[in-house]
Amino acid sequence: MSVAKHHVMIKGVKDGLVFLLNDACEWQDLLKELQHKLEKTHQQILTGPIIHVHVKLGSREATEEQKEEIRSVIKQKGNLLIQSIESEPRKEVVVEPAARMSTLRGMIRSGQTLHHEGDLLYLGDVNPGGTITSTGNIYIMGSLRGMAHAGIDGDDKAIIAASHMRPTQLRIAGIISRSPDEWGIEEAFMEFAYVKDGKMEIDKLHQLHRISPDSNLKL
């Protein structure tokens, strides 16, 4: 039975040899090829005086029993002296924390514009003629009677919410709302705007969980 010879690589280094063992193949296939190279194909470079050997397992996490199997195979060549059997340290995946919401307070008067990068919780009113924009969601704890533009960089999953929603205009990404007179909401509940099937819709805030289970609210 022929043995595929691509699971074990042997490289010469300054102080001896490095055995690079494939970390994706079956363990028994690895041992068979290691044995084959020691006995058959690499006799010339594995003979002579004492040779120091470093075994690299790649990302494979070998048990002590498996390491002992490697030692047993290599020790059959009396001049090979194992210095180390090592796996590569695991690379830690760094997960950037989700951007937290920023909170601002004040009043946006006619002619004033407030722009924010990310989600924004605004404590105050946006008066007629005033504008509030954000790359993320906009939550206004107050009256929105001016213009609000969420997802300004193209995020059509953003929402706009306000305690009192009577804006001159709403925009989410590139979508513009209908006239507030066409929303069909008359009670003074907190409302929010969102995009559904390419159109902007307005609903009471307690319906937000139906639109987006996580509400995109990162507190």
TrEMBL record:
Span of the signal peptide: none
Keywords: Cell cycle, Cell division, Septation
Top-level taxon of the source organism: Bacteria
InterPro entries in UniProt: CAP/MinC_C, MinC, MinC_C_sf, MinC_N_1, Septum_form_inhib_MinC_C
Domain Septum formation inhibitor MinC C-terminal span(s) in chain numbering: 105-202
TM ranges: none
Subunit description: Interacts with MinD and FtsZ.
NCBIfam families in the record: minC (TIGR01222)
Functional description taken from the UniProt entry: Cell division inhibitor that blocks the formation of polar Z ring septums. Rapidly oscillates between the poles of the cell to destabilize FtsZ filaments that have formed before they mature into polar Z rings. Prevents FtsZ polymerization.
Family (UniProt): Belongs to the MinC family.
Xref: HAMAP family: MinC (MF_00267)
Name assigned to this protein: Probable septum site-determining protein MinC
Species lineage: Bacteria, Bacillati, Bacillota, Bacilli, Bacillales
Gene: minC
